[in-house]
Design a protein that fits this description.
Low-confidence stretches: none
Number of domains: 2
Distance between the termini: 38 Å
Helix content: over 70%
Oligomer: single chain
Strand order of the largest sheet: 2-1-4-3
Mean pLDDT: 92
Number of helices: 6
Structural class: mainly alpha
Strand content: under 5%
Number of strands: 4
Length: 259
Amino acid sequence: MAKKKEPTVEEKLRALYDLQLIDSRIDKIRDVRGELPLEVRDLEDDIEGLNTRIEKINTSLKELEDQISYKKNLIDESKALIKKYTEQQKNVRNNREFDSLTKETEYQELEIQLAEKNINEYKAQIELKKESIEEVQDKLKDKSEHLDHKKKELDTILKETEKEENMLLKKSDDYKKLIEERLLFSYSKIRGNVKNGLAIVPVERGAAGGSYFTIPPQVQMEIASRKKIITDEHSGRILIDEVLASEQKEKMEKLFSSF
């Protein structure tokens, strides 16, 4: 069985630059979305927080309403006792019994006053909480409308780009399989360390693409010879010559236009 031919340095560079062009196009599509996915997520979190707040206020309102019912029952019980003590006073045998019933009546009257005071306090708290709910509901309405707008905006962008992005992601995976693991690891590491995600760049006007540092003529000749992989000493990016870059760009543009 014939041994699989080892790809040349030039073939490796072409495969790497093809992968770079695909990944850069994916980056561009995602840049179009910008901060929209994060904005949508933040708004969803805000809405969840506001709904939780409304639930807590409603729970508190229910507790206050229960307290009012409880105090009203106490008032009814106290009134019933006062009526009972008043009737009993009509049949007392001595002053001591009369005074005892009078004290019990006064105590129940104080209980009624305290319960009525509590009820008024609870009602005032309920009014404040209802106002608070209205404020939160207004915020919730605004946030929900804003979220709907952002979601529509995001959905529109996704519909326009989703098909192309999925095809590009598949192509990216396919091209990664053509590149040896060590080289792919270096590419991914460099790509993660640079802001624009460019791990492999052509030499343009005597400098690495996007850099102002001049590359010595001897190194430029080595890059153009495509005999070994050369990295930029300043940024660590892999360097290729302009001709190779132009050829691969033309090839990949045809691929992109087929999507």
